[in-house]
Specification:
Chain lengths: 327, 252
């Protein structure tokens, strides 16, 4: 057994342990003083934990894991490591969808909003795929740039509509993920994102095969078109659920899959659990940081992930220039 | 048997494959040769259902490759394309395991693991099994793909210009491997080749195409002749008998 395979066997357990540790910290941290002892003696402390802390921690884990999985599937299917929900227009399209849903179906249930945001996310991503399939010049950096431009167009349309309806502030809150409002009854839709990520795991082999190219997939009897579509639907759905429920978390779907696959390779069946757990750990850690930096106030997790994520992203690009620029 | 019946493929006005009818045998090595643009690779892509035909039917052991379930076709026929442009970082073993996909639906059975292990052994990849494929040399990678096809365990193995970018050491090594697959495992190897001398030395049958049509079809003794090759390529050839093999010279 080589060092590589040993590491691959240990990685998911290490990531799981980290998530567990951070989850405990997340449960005990907050403006109301809660310690383990109080849980058994103080009914109020118990209530704080079940109504606020547990939902918040679960929401962090679910959205972090699901977004990382969505990013992993997108970068693999697009065969470009810089393609993720935030660089392919998916997030901005979902935001536009949420805005349209809020305006034209005012007072509608959260599920209606999710479905509409998902349809927008799907259409936006499909447009991106359509554009990159038509361009000849497929530079690794150029492809996500097209996605960012497209995302900028969606964002501008959303901005314009929001301005007309006096919703610019609401829009900017949606586009920056924040878990401070998460309480029991206001995060449960995120389990849907978790379930979708789990389904992705069950079919991980198909996604790996589809990501190896149409000919590769066809040779072993995998329907390329069907699994490409399924993968994009999964990514759009996860993005829509997260954006509608807690807001966008930038860079997460980009940097987590990149770091994990850099160490563990691209066999999705093998890297997907570690990717999901690492995504959860990163969001937990960033949220804990956001809650402690200006305690007892909070910085939105989207801001913290944005700062850390853009730094990591730069490092990845610099690295890539040397080793993977041609890949 | 693979039956190709009046297969036609055009791009705009250009007919690349023009009503080709052929049967490919159940065993042995069959080479397809011909000048650039003769339609060899296109024909192979259609036979392996990677490319749709404008007209005509291809069946493998009675299964229509375009309408039968893709997985059923994948148990009978495998294709290795010339340009395996891979960006995925997976190991040789993981690649070879994908060959079992049509049989196992992605969950490896003990039988699958055995097939993977013996394919890796057979292609002399044991020491490279846990290396990522993008770190391998061209020859090693080509062997890894052959191992995958071997694990897929199909009767028909189609290869599109497998010798591209290989030096003579690796090219000869690969041709020996393919020959032994036909001889030891009873497989039918069908390959598109540009090097007519490899075709001559290793094939049981050579099919020559020109302008989308089959113009020669027979054993090397019939196709590797000066008259036949000049007809196919439109240039002069000298065919020599060297150590019992027919070798064509065409360099001047």
């Amino acid at each position: 057994m080589t060092a590589r395979t040993t590491f691959a066997a240990v990685a998911p357990w290490a990531a799981a342990a980290l998530v567990l540790l951070l989850a405990v910290v997340s449960l005990l941290l907050g403006a109301a003083d809660v310690n383990v002892w109080a849980l058994f003696t103080d009914a109020e402390a118990w209530q704080v934990v079940t109504v606020s802390r547990v939902p918040r921690t679960a929401a962090l884990i679910l959205s972090g894991a699901a977004l990382a999985v969505a990013g992993l599937i997108m970068q693999h299917l697009a065969r470009n490591r810089f393609v993720a929900p935030s660089t392919a227009g998916t997030v901005d399209a979902a935001g536009l969808g949420l805005l349209v849903a809020t305006i034209s179906f005012a007072g509608s249930s959260i599920m209606v909003k999710i479905v509409i945001a998902m349809l927008f996310a799907l259409a936006g991503t499909a447009l991106f795929i359509g554009v990159i399939q038509r361009i000849q010049f497929k530079d690794v950096i150029f492809v996500p740039l097209v996605g960012l431009v497209l995302g900028g167009v969606f964002a501008a349309i959303a901005e314009f509509i929001a301005y007309r309806f006096n919703l610019t502030q609401t829009l900017s809150i949606w586009m920056n993920g924040d878990f401070s409002g998460v309480i029991q009854g206001r995060y449960e839709t995120l389990w849907l994102a978790g379930a979708v990520a789990l389904i992705a795991y069950l079919f991980a082999n198909r996604f790996t095969a589809a990501g190896m190219g149409r000919e590769f997939a066809t040779n072993i009897g995998v329907n390329y078109r069907a699994w490409m579509t399924t993968g994009l639907v999964i990514a759009a759905m996860v993005t829509a659920v997260v954006v509608v429920t807690v807001g966008a978390i930038p860079f997460l779907g980009l940097i987590v899959p990149n770091i994990v696959t850099l160490m563990l390779g691209d066999n999705l069946r093998r890297v997907l659990p570690t990717t999901a757990l690492t995504g959860a750990a990163l969001v937990l850690a960033c949220d804990i940081l956001g809650r402690t930096l200006i305690y007892p106030y909070e910085i939105a997790v989207g801001t913290i992930v944005g700062v850390i994520g853009s730094g990591v992203f730069l490092v990845l690009i610099m690295r890539r220039r040397n080793t993977y620029a041609a890949a | 048997m693979i039956a190709i019946d009046s297969v036609t493929k055009s791009y705009g006005d250009a007919t690349v494959v023009d009503a080709v009818s052929l049967t490919l045998p159940d065993s042995g090595v069959t080479s397809i040769i011909g000048p650039n643009g003769a339609g060899k690779s296109t024909l192979l892509s259609i036979v392996s259902r990677i490319l749709g035909a404008d007209a005509g039917v291809v069946s493998v052991e009675g299964l229509d490759v375009f309408s039968a379930p893709s997985r059923e076709v994948a148990k009978r026929l495998s294709i290795l394309r010339q340009d395996q442009h891979l960006t995925a970082r997976i190991t040789v073993r993981e690649l070879v395991e994908f060959g079992r996909f049509p049989h196992s639906h992605g969950r490896l059975t003990p039988e699958c693991r055995e097939a993977v292990a013996s394919a890796i052994e057979y292609c002399d990849l044991a020491e490279l099994a846990d290396r990522p494929i993008h770190q391998l040399s061209g020859g090693q990678r080509q062997r890894a793909f052959v191992a995958m096809v071997l694990a897929q365990d199909t009767r028909y193995v189609l290869l599109d210009e497998p010798l591209n970018n290989l030096d003579m050491v690796h090219a000869t090594g690969l041709m020996r491997l393919l020959r032994s697959l036909a001889d030891d495992h009873g497989k039918s190897i069908v390959l598109v080749l540009h090097d007519i001398n490899y075709a001559s030395v290793y094939s049981d049958r050579i099919i020559a195409m020109r302008g989308g049509a089959v113009v020669q079809d027979g054993p090397p003794t019939e196709v590797i002749t000066e008259a036949a090759l000049e007809d196919v390529y439109g240039m002069e050839f000298r065919v020599h008998e060297v150590d019992g093999e027919r070798i064509a010279a065409y360099y001047r």
